[in-house]
Amino acid sequence: MSTATMPRGDFVDFKEVKSRITITQILERYDLIRTLKRSGDRLSGPCPIHRGTNPTQFRVSVSKNCWNCFGNCGRGGNIIDFVSLREGLPFREAALLLQEWFMPDKAGSTLAESSVVHSRRSHAPSPPLPEGASGQQDASEDDEAGENPPLSFELKTLKADHPYLGERGLTGATVQSYGLGLCGRGCLRGYIAIPVKNRDGKLVAYIGRWPGTPPEDKPKYKLPKGFKKRLELFNIDRAVQVPDEQPLLVVEGVFDCLRLVQLGYPRTVALLGSSLSARQEILIRDAVGEGGQVCLMLDADEAGRHGASDAASRLSRSCSVRALDIGEYRHQPEQLEKVEIEALLRTR
Ligand SMILES: [Zn+2]
Fold it and tell me: Does the structure show a pLDDT above 70 at 256?
């Protein structure tokens, strides 16, 4: 998601925050420096995140501007991660708070957001949001408004036997059931066409995925003109038909979703990206109901972690949400083996 489309009040440049603020400044602000021992580039002491007592578990690299706990919590990361965990704030709000503390030149543009930060930090209830609104709007309003109209045609000549689909771990049965295949004509020519259906099962788009590494002039994914992917939640039409014995699994990509369905998790939906849109938030709330269970399984990268932390804080207002960190096993859910998924779902 390009930051250029964000409303001004939400703007935070994570890279700039991480490069301009030092971990030492933060530890000083929390009055933690005195609890740490310095040895060259490293600071070590008891972990202030899980509030441990072992004097060597928490380690900071000053030059790398990062930290790790080798004890109970096992957490670690950059300066924003630290403030996020310490304050119990979503990643983005932690970055905004840092901006407010240490970058007064930027804080002016975040006034609206910092009032939210303050109200959450003082444990006051979140400000009421209008129906359908979201705590964070990462896309311009235009991307989130209206409907994708159902298509008046179907691509009937897609080739389902392209080897790429097998390489992505999909069986012939899955490919056939979801109607994927190589497109031989039109703007998706040469792409694997992936049908996308809305909540009611109406076909609203074909997304194109180049089979393999695309040539330089072709994008990896191709969306039809005018199609707003943030209005759709891939596989929601089928997921809502499944009895809710297992939690609703939320992943980023179509292939993650199809692999999980194939492995026996039919209640899986894909965001078609790493962040939860306002519409997707509503679709998920509707699907699981009040107090329903949602498991977030986003990619083990920075975008996935931001996305999961934001989605968890928004969905937890009405659902029981767990954000599973798949990083211990794989980078993306589509690479997970069934035993690994089972192990992840058992973690508390
Ligand atoms: Zn710790």
Answer: yes
